[in-house]
Amino acid sequence: MDETLLQFIRHLRNNGLAISTAETLDAMRVVATLGYSDPGLLRDGLASCLAKTVDDHSHFAVCFERFFRAPIGENITDNNTKDEAENTDLDDTKNPNEGDGAGGGEGAGNGQGSGGSGSIGQRDNTLSEVIRAAAEVGLENIKFRTQRGVYRRKILNALNDEQKVSNIQQLQDAGEIEQALILRQLRDRQIAAVKDVIDRQLLLNNDAAGKQLRDDTIKDTSLSAMEHYHRERLPPLIRKLAKKLASRHRQRHKRARRGKLDLGKTLRRNIAYGGIPFHRFWKTTRKDKSDIFVLCDISGSVSAWSRVLLLFVQALSDVLPNTRSFVFCGQSIEVSDLFKQYPADEAMAIIQQRHGLGGSDYGLALNSFWNQIEDKLNRRSCVIILGDGRGNGGDTGIDALRNIYHRARLVLWFNPESHYSWNTGDSEIRRYQSASHYVAECGSLRKLERLLDQLLSLLQ
Amino acid sequence: MTDARKDIEQLIAKLAEQGYIASSAIATTLYIAQQLERPILIEGPPGVGKTELANATAAMLAKPLFRLQCYEGLDESKALYDWKYSKQLLYVQVLKEQLHDILDGTDGLANAVERLHNFDDIFYSERFLEPRPLLKALQSDDGAVLLIDEIDKADYEFESLLLEILADFSVTLPEIGTLRARHKPLVILTSNNTRDLSDALKRRCLHLYIPFPEAKLESRIVHSRVPAVPDELRRQLVNFVHGVRELDLKKQPAISETIDWARSLLLLHCDSLSRELVEDTLNVLLKYEEDINMVSPELHGLIKRATSNL
After folding, report:
1. Are residues A204 and A282 in the same domain?
2. CA-only gyration radius of chain B, Å
3. Chain mean pLDDT for chain A
4. Where does the record place the AAA+ ATPase domain (chain B) (predicted)?
């Protein structure tokens, strides 16, 4: 088994590239064909079977650089030292190339000239000892930053550190100060090396487990309670969830275009051939496409949620082709074009900046929304409204909503508020409930995902 | 230099003979695809030579190229195989008379059916099979290059249909059984990335992303395609195109447009870029009114940068 390659693949996975077993096997064959000697070639070859999207390619390049090139410790110029120590079985394939320096034009200090590998100093010996010890205690399983201390202790134990300490003590007691000083320096160097190795491994593992934990937490946290710091992680997470939803629903998206045999037409058209059906005609199935209208409150109280819903809907554009997005504080404004022109994140910022000030006026919003979509609304339309239904005591616009309700196939109201605070204070959600098919609480990302999942199944 | 590197250099040279200037990444992927017998999925902006790579490869290997252009609604009867329905029907009509002879002398329905069973499903044999590009590529006698162009335009069902072919180079026809490729064809898929392809498809392919080339490479490409363009003009026009690509355009000029532009400039007999010339021929390079409007005010700077000796 090629341990270096497996470690590299683990490193890629920790950095978010999804690599299957089949691709690992492919990569092994690639390495067997190309060998390790030519880094440029190896990079291009591995990239073709391990990185499967454009984004992946740039990630891959960074990871490759970090894994195969990054020097460890400040004074070590030979990049292969780590791999060398880790994989003694690979030494034969690696060492000859140091003098060769093939493909070294990539800029990294590759190779030390002729006979470079012969001059491994004491410092490198320390390092390789440490790396060997690290492999013994299973350092590659380190997951969280907080485990650093534990692993440091484990590695030092494996290196017989206690023995060294007592040796130094003994020498000191015996009065051989100089000898003790040398030993102490060696030990300090070793400890520094241990620290380096652990940090590097953490970097390679990229805190993958920690990220997974954070993602899971974010999905269940109410957005209003979420720290600003976590909100920045939302857009990628939303895209990931949307991708999952899209792939689940895309399979059923299209039905067979060719329906049953149109017997009458077939017979009629084949009269010329004495009724023998040389040409066949099929009934075509016509599938209704749903139009989706999304209306989001972007006033202070629920703007964060509107952002999430709009991003989600945009990310789902693959399976929801006819979507029009509207936002309101007062007047409802269509923003579909902005999403076409700019990337989703940027579009959201522009919307927030242009339209996002003030408290919500549901009366004005729903009336203007109705005026804009009246002629487009039919039995295939589905309307999603996101808001907390708190109109600050003003006009509720319930009549406009009722018009929409009668015209559309489905009116959904997503309320980010918890169920318990509905109908308290200035909340008019009970009245809106009477004019929509379903009012749902979407307190967390996971709930929203479930709602959209159900909606998609319904629309198919 | 290792063996693999030597082979790849050779591959680049051979592709160059066909007029295709390949970067090292392209050649490496092609080499691996040949060694591992894997399909290649090529992505990249339109006009960087994705389809051209398949053409050049087929010419280089001296093998026939089967091209399948994908579009929405493409199904297996157009891509894979179909039954020659009319021929089947015609044979049935002609052979109607024969039935009497065959069934002559049988008594009772059971015996007649029994005798008919002795004849195979002749109407669903390979004789009545109408092969479409995919099947043709599998059936070719000494290998072929199969180009599945713009796979992202096809439906998701079609991707699933491709999986068996891409993984095992075989097709299962319900009436006949599994047909295996006589020689595994080299399969090249291209995608303009208008939608995400399924992971299952990607897993079976090598992935190659072809970006817009660097100036040096593009200059060589132009040289190979339009050799008559003087060196100085070539350098200037490639630099100019690279400058244009840095702007935020609706559609970036691709290599094919650079080549077209080089040809037009050649027709106009000019040896260096000038403002009037560029203004008049900008529509060769840019395909949208908005893009032309965006580039026009920048022309002075762009031309100055392109013609300076940096």
Report:
1. no
2. 27
3. 77
4. 36-214
List helix spans (H) across B118-230.
Answer: 133-139, 156-168, 199-204, 215-225
Query: Which of A44, A54, A49, A59 minimizes the C-alpha distance to A13?
Result: A59
Q: Any bridge partners for residue B83, and if so which? A: B129
User: Do A395 and A281 have their domain in common?
Assistant: no
Are A81 and A120 a contacting pair, CB within 8 Å? Answer: yes
| pLDDT of amino acid B54 | 93
Q: What pLDDT shows up at residue A286?
A: 59
* Together in a domain, A63 and A184: yes
Is A164 among the domain residues?
A: yes
With an 8 Å Cβ cutoff, are B206 and A44 in contact? Answer: no
Q: Quote the percentage of chain B above a pLDDT of 90.
A: 26
Amino acid identity of A421?
S
pLDDT in tens, A334-388: 888 888 888 877 888 888 888 877 778 888 889 999 999 888 888 888 899 988 8
A296 φ/ψ angles, rounded to the nearest 5 degrees: -120, 135
Write down the pTM of the prediction: 0.69
Alpha carbons A187 and A161: distance in angstroms, whole number? 8
pLDDT band of B310, cuts 50, 70, 90: low
CATH number at residue A326: 3.40.50.410
Beta bridge partners of A324: A293
> In Å, what is the CA distance from A295 to each residue of A251, A281, A319, A382?
28, 44, 19, 11
Residues A282 and A335 both lie in one domain: no
Number of domains in chain A: 3
Judge if A396 and A272 occupy the same domain. no
Q: Output phi, psi for B85, to 5 deg.
A: -60, -50
Q: Is residue A242 part of a domain?
A: no
Whether residue A355 is contained in a domain is answered as yes
Domain match, A379 and A428 both: yes
Which residues of chain A have a CB within 8 Å of the CB of B198?
Answer: 247
* Residue A197 to residue A188: CA distance in whole angstroms: 14
Residues A408 and A310 in one domain: yes
Of B73, B199, B207, which has the smallest distance from its Cβ to A48's Cβ? Answer: B207
Is residue A33 over pLDDT 90? no
Cα–Cα distance measured from residue A229 to residue A218, given in angstroms and rounded to the nearest whole number: 11
Tell me the CB-side half-sphere exposure of residue B136, using CA atoms within 13 A: 17
Residue range(s) defining the domain that contains residue A274: 258-286
**Angle CA A56–A58–A60, to nearest 5:** 65
Q: Where does a domain end: A149, A176, A210?
A: A210
Pair A39, A109: CB distance under 8 Å: no
Which of A286, A306, A323 terminates a domain? The answer is: A286
Q: How far is A103 from chain B (nearest CA, A)?
A: 9
Let me know if residue A229 belongs to a domain.
Answer: no
* One domain for residues A341 and A267: no
Cross-chain residue pair A49–B196, CB shorter than 8 Å = no
